[in-house]
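Lecture 7 notes: from sequence to structure.

We start with a single chain of 156 residues. Read the sequence below before looking at the structure.
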Amino acid sequence: MSGCAAHRVCFKPVGDLKLTPAAVATGGYSADQVVSWGGVVIDQTNDALELEVMAYPLDTCGQPDIDNPPLGRFRVRHHHFNSLDIPAGRQLTATGRLREIRDHWHTPLLEEAAVRLWAEPPPVADVGYPVFIWPFISIGISGGGGRISGGIGIHF
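Now the structure, written as tokens:
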């Protein structure tokens, strides 16, 4: 049965794992370094040619670990995807070349990026409808065989 269980495909992040978007924003990096960063999509920028991402540390499979504090913001640009198809809130990991920071927010840019979209988390299970408040009272009426009966119940 374990063969049927779904598992995620892991990959090894590239580049210096200590080089975070926040560290790059303050300087002390060289352009054209190749790095892997991951996070949650915040918005599309630059006429939907780029994605803005809130960065998080990567786990052992290269997926953003959103249970940890964020590591800054970065932008992703790739000419082979339409960023409009990637909604805000989606997790991704991007591996690309670090380019010069040209905006006034000091947001690092990964260009020529290979983007990996992670599966969306399953929706929160609905507990059902209606929601019962305990204790509650129910009234029932039934019939059959020429008889009609009813009852009142108090549930705790």
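Residues 86 and 119 are 12 Å apart (CA to CA). Keep this in mind for problem set 3.
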